[in-house]
Amino acid sequence: MSSKPMKNDQDIEMYPNIEEYKHAIRNIQNRLLSQSFQYVPSPSDTNELYFCAGNFSVVFRVKDNNGKHFALKCFIIEKKDRLARYQAISTFLDQYQNDYFVAYEYLKKELFVTSSSAKNKDFPILKMEWVHGNTLAIALNEACKKHDIEFLKIICDEWDNLCQFLLDHSIAHGDLKHDNIVVTDNNKLVLIDYDGMFVPALKNMTANEIGSSAYQHPKRNHLMFNKDMDHFSMLVIKLSLHALKQNPDLYKYNTGENIIFSKRDFDNIEDSQLIKEIQTLNNSFINMLIKDLRKSCSSEKIANPKINEIVRTKEKVFKLRLNILFTSLLLLCIFLYVCSYLTNEINIIDEDRLIPAVPDQGNLYMDFADIEGEFLPSNKDKHFFVIRGNAINCYQNSRSKILIAAKLFSREDQLEDEEDIHKKFIVSKYQEVYAGNILFNKEVLRIDKDNIIRYLTHSNNKCTKSNERIPFLFVFFDLPSNLEEYSVQVVSSEACVELPQTHLKTDINTIDTDVMPPDVPDQGNLYMDFEDIEGEFLENIIEKRCFVIRGNVINSYRSSRSKILIAAKLFSKEEQLEDEIDTNNKFILSKYQEVFAGNILINKEIQKIDKENIFRYLTQSNNKCVESNERIPFLFVFFDISPNLVEYSVQAISSETCINIMK
User: What is the 8-class DSSP label of residue 25?
Assistant: First the structure.
């Protein structure tokens, strides 16, 4: 995505009307200053242009000489600071390229229009890529008619992803609605119409529009122009999509100006007929969104402090409490599950059984076995609570750095005026550990708390093969008196490859942690590959012995990249205690280093130069543009090496898009 820089424009008081623009577009080949286009006729009437009109502009569909389609946006009404706004938005979108926005170019004096309402002259237009697909309005209409639940599920997830992108980058669209969202042919969402958009560079301006009333907070006005102004629209659209997923017939509330909600629902939320009908679905997740909407409508502020929680897919948990043993005959499989894992009065909640539709962080295909919890007495810290079990790698590839979380739940006493008769559960303890770090009970009792936690949180880099089990351990201290339940879930893991010893020197294995990158926001590292990685020991005259890692990083992006930052980790083998039965050696991270690719020294230079100057050279930000599929070498030099070094890993951390000016 790119857009050309724009110069300051002069104010234009009058613009042509739609009919005058249509006349110009019909003769477009003779009316453009720098571009060459043909108009595209309407699919329903070949004598009519393909266009759509709004309150402030009209958009025409055109194509170039190669048949590529574009949208030309022509302005009907002058808006304050239009050029400055488009320039700020353009700069932002160039910096954060993504799939949710389309590339555009502001052409200052491009289209000549003969006009009775304005002077006969060249007027500005906005040229942008044409997004192939239907608006969300058309897509939802078709899906609800067909009761296409699978499509509605996909759109619910895609909407969460789009909203999260806006929140993560502190930007707002300003007019989120069904007509400004396009569903592409592969069911991805793309935003269009950026007239009211906010980016950080526009923080001192006011809004030039306040959006459609069917999506906006009742208190929205032109003074509210910041990164938070989409919060209400995000919630309204999320609730609408999930309600339609449960009952597509609710689309009967669509008026053409909304999805299902309208301004009158927000103005009188307690008496909304739509809300009452949605509540009959008896869906706890949707009821929670309704509660959030009610709270937001009653607030004077558009900003919603819970918006990040709202847009994320909610965690689903099996709450298997003791009384379910007597009431869950209809849920026999859950009953058997509880019976197999209960060991005392505290029950197990496996939060990884219901997997949410979220990007895979390396936790979606992990399972558990042999989970048990027990109290251990201690003279120092009263009682410990210990959770043991095995994590099972159900991925088809090997995984390492398997991070697991456990939560302890306590009962919270109710307030006297609360109507809910059920006591509430609160998280009283939370802990994350890496699988593979194990202690026996007698070791837990004799080691102090800080060293236990330090040991359990070591990043264990052992490769766990597909369908293989790896043990884990949690040790909780300072326990609450009303402890009731606990839960265990996998947080993340990384793909790893165990290379044969013959591939490398000095019997040190290489683990390429970037082989299968997780589906996370791209920092410029997801499409980097490695080759020719090797490690060797060298004798340095000044610093004595050092360990060197060399290799090439391959830019697998389609664009050129620069400032390619790479990290390497050295892992040492930790000695076992004499009475340990487990024969698996534990790995601990002993060294970590980050360097920029392209900074290279030969061995004889490494042997002569002191440590500080080597580090200073390797960590310089190398701005060389690496073209797509091109290789660039890298180098790591480690000093003060552990004598029991056994493995090392290499992975890409980040890179930036660049343009090779010399080309």
Answer: H
- Provide the pLDDT for residue 213: 94
pLDDT, one tens digit per residue, over 235-279 is 999 999 999 999 999 999 999 999 999 999 999 999 999 999 999
* Alpha-carbon span 607 to 518, nearest angstrom: 38
Inter-residue long-range contacts of 48-55, CB under 8 Å, 24+ positions, other chains counted? 49/22, 49/25, 51/22, 51/25, 53/18, 54/193
Instruction: Give alpha helix (H) positions in 411-509.
Output: 441-446, 449-456
What phi, psi does 402 have (nearest 5°)? Answer: -80, 105
Closest C-alpha among 435, 453, 434, 471 to residue 381:
453
Write out pLDDT tens, residues 127-138.
999 999 999 999
Beta bridge partners of 594: 567
Q: Which domains does the chain have, with CATH numbers?
A: 18-129 (3.30.200.20), 136-312 (1.10.510.10), 366-412+425-495 (2.60.40), 528-575+586-657 (2.60.40)
Tell me which DSSP letter residue 503 carries: G
Give the relative orientation of helices 149-168 and 231-246 as an angle to the nearest 10 degrees. Answer: 170
Instruction: Report how far residue 254's alpha carbon sits from residue 256's, in angstroms, rounded to the nearest whole number.
Output: 6
HSE at residue 25, side-chain half, CA atoms within 13 A, is 26
User: Coil, strand or helix: which one is 114?
Assistant: coil
The overall average pLDDT reported for the chain is 81
CB-based contacts of 388: which residues, under 8 Å, 6+ apart?
370, 371, 372, 373, 471, 472, 473, 474
Average pLDDT over residues 179-192: 95
CA distances from 116 to 23, 58, 574 (A): 13, 18, 84
338-352, 380-394, 518-532: which has the highest mean pLDDT? Answer: 380-394
Separation of alpha carbons 352 and 318, rounded Å? 9
The Cβ of residue 381 has, within 10 Å, a number of other Cβ atoms equal to: 16
Q: Assess whether pLDDT exceeds 70 at residue 197.
A: yes
The β-bridge partners of 472 are 389
- Give the Cα separation of 195 and 89 in Å (integer): 10
